[in-house]
Specification:
This protein has 387 residues and is α/β, with parallel strands linked by helices. It has 14 helices and nine strands. 53% of the residues are buried.
């Protein structure tokens, strides 16, 4: 009799990991697809600071016609997606490339779905609501954090402070290109915040109450090993090629893990911080990780102990000691990363914590995955602990 519980594991069809791959985009994509009318979804900063130049030259040399949508912003509202789809339809694009951080890749996913579709965006929110196929989709991350290049999730800002998600198999890309050279220009604070975001993905996937499986576990462990052993080096010397490559691969592996074993309370508590205070997603995760790790310790100690063995080496110590050692290690790593450590350091006010706690409880899709049930009073206590 098999000891394995049945599980399903889904991910993208193809990953190319190569330093300098952006300079060969035309060659890489040209040999893969006959589509030549390409939409690049990115942001103004990446477009204007020259990061796209080599990629654009390579694509044009290979015969691609380029339409560039560079109006993506952090925590993108629905209007950005509608503008992107409108521009793409007018240009009659037949291939979509998301290039940037999580927001650009998220917009690219839904644009690839909506450009040829008659479905309305409002009908896509939730799980498995997308009908039919989409345009071919390629994703190229320029930060080592969100893992969006290998997930089937898009998050959009739907109101002043609210976000909604689309989760569908069609959002998995056809091809992902990991070129760590594109991450060399990331400032230390963004490197720290996105790197910790990726570690949160790995930890929450490993401790997820639902759909955790042997494949997601293996990816989460290796992701955490790569990220934890290279985060400080990448923050201290942004041109360290070995650290940049390890961080980017780690973020992608963590993305594959949490796409299959979903994240939980850290993310549920992070989203209201983004909604109310526009704190970048990776940083809001970093701020909430320590309190949530301690809150979950009672139920997750055996799993934390296993992660401690990955980061600190096998030990004869008790499960409890290894688990608390893991939490202490993560605290120390975040301190050394240079990222802000308290909510008050990023201008969150104490009188807003109750509202944040109330908003966090709306993240039922995430909270159900947490190893310990979390009530509104617990959420408030966690924000107070992070304050």
């Amino acid at each position: 009799m098999s000891s394995f519980k049945p599980f399903t594991f889904d991910t993208v069809a193809s990953i190319v990991a190569e330093w300098g791959a952006a300079r060969r985009f035309g060659e890489i994509l040209g040999s893969w697809t006959e589509s030549r009318n390409l939409l690049i979804v990115t942001d103004k900063f990446l477009h204007t600071n020259g990061l796209l130049d080599a990629a654009k030259a390579s694509l044009q040399q290979a015969g691609f016609t380029l339409s560039i949508f560079d109006d993506v912003v952090a925590d993108p509202p629905e209007s950005v997606l509608h503008d992107c789809v409108g521009q793409a339809r007018a240009a009659k694009v037949d291939l979509v490339l998301g290039l940037g951080g999580g927001s650009s890749m998220d917009i690219a996913k839904l644009a690839a779905v909506l450009i040829p579709s008659s479905q309305q965006l409002a009908d896509l929110y939730g799980i498995g609501k997308v009908k039919g196929s989409r345009l071919p989709l390629v994703q190229i991350p320029t930060t080592a954090g969100t893992g969006s290049e290998v997930t089937n999730i898009t998050i959009l800002t739907t109101g002043e402070t609210t976000k909604m998600g689309v989760v569908a198999q069609q959002l998995y890309a056809d091809k992902v290109i990991l070129d760590a050279e594109l991450t060399v220009g990331l400032p230390p604070l963004i490197t720290a915040a996105t790197g910790i975001d990726a570690m949160v993905h790995a930890i929450e996937a490993y401790t997820s109450r639902h759909r955790k499986n042997p494949l997601s576990d293996a990816l989460a462990r290796e992701a955490l090993r790569l990220l934890a052993s290279n985060l400080v080096a990448a923050c201290e010397d942004g041109s360290n090629r070995q650290a940049r490559e390890a961080m980017l691969l780690g973020a992608t592996l963590a993305g594959q893990a949490f796409a299959n074993a979903p994240v939980a309370a850290v993310h549920a508590l992070a989203y209201p911080l983004g909604g109310h205070y526009h704190i970048p997603h990776g940083l809001s995760n970093a701020l909430m990780l320590g309190p949530v790790l301690r809150f979950n310790l009672s139920a997750a100690a055996p799993l934390y102990a296993e992660l401690a063995d990955v980061l600190l080496g096998p030990s004869e110590a008790t499960v409890t000691d290894r688990a608390t050692g893991f939490v202490a290690f993560m605290d120390d790593l975040m301190n050394r990363s240079g990222a802000p450590r308290r909510l008050r350091d990023v201008k969150v006010t104490e009188d807003s914590l109750a509202l944040l706690a109330s908003d966090a409880m709306k993240q039922e899709r995430l909270l159900q995955n947490n190893p310990v049930e979390l009530r509104e009073a617990d959420a408030l206590a966690l924000y107070q602990a992070a304050f």
